[in-house]
Amino acid sequence: METTRLIMVAVGGQGNLLASKVLGEAALISGVPVRMSEIHGMAQRGGVVESAIVFGDATSTIISDGEADILMGFEPAETLRALNRCSTKTRIITNTAMLPPFTVSIGRGVYPEIETIKKLLKEKCASLVAFDAMALAKEAGSPMSVNIVLLGALVQSGGLQFSKENVIEAIKRRTKTAFLDKNLKAFELGYQAACG
Question: Residue 87 belongs to what domain range?
């Protein structure tokens, strides 16, 4: 079975870990072998959270520099920071809504322009899907569903070995009932956003 290596990067609190669990569940539903690992860093203080998910035949979850088939970023500067994991064959999906780090807030750092980030990403990868996932999450009824919006875009952009229906089933299994309708709407909005 073909191996697909996915790196997901986010800031603590953006739902990276739930997104990982949904994808893991979707893989199991689809009969696709899956291995996952996570790095939490200073997640509770707004630090980076990184998930590595390997679908298909693999013995390790380590994704070295240049090996990611897909990079999904929940925050644009974190996506840019993970660019070394990509090659010219990598597909990148990123949120363009910024969450500037504390150093920028106190004037000790500079946040790059979104257009600059997009240009740098495009230069390194095979394809780029970049959009404001926060706006779509709010449209779905919950700013907390940025992760599910991005999953919708990921599934639509291809590269995974399982169907949209299986991911929807995984969302149903992994989401609390109170949030399910909003998450299903968020998923569909993300899916449609990646079509254009």
Answer: 4-193
pTM score, whole prediction: 0.92
Burial of 57 (0-12, 13-18, 19+ CB in 10 A): exposed
> Looking at this protein, which amino acid is placed at residue 166?
N
Number of domains in the chain: 1
* CATH number of the domain enclosing 68: 3.40.920.10
Per residue of the chain (196 residues), give pLDDT as tens. Answer: 689 999 999 987 788 889 999 999 999 999 999 999 977 655 455 567 889 999 998 888 899 999 999 999 999 999 999 999 999 999 999 999 988 766 666 777 788 899 999 999 999 999 999 999 999 999 999 999 999 999 999 999 988 988 999 999 999 999 999 999 999 999 999 999 998 6
Backbone angles phi, psi at 38, to 5 degrees: -135, 145
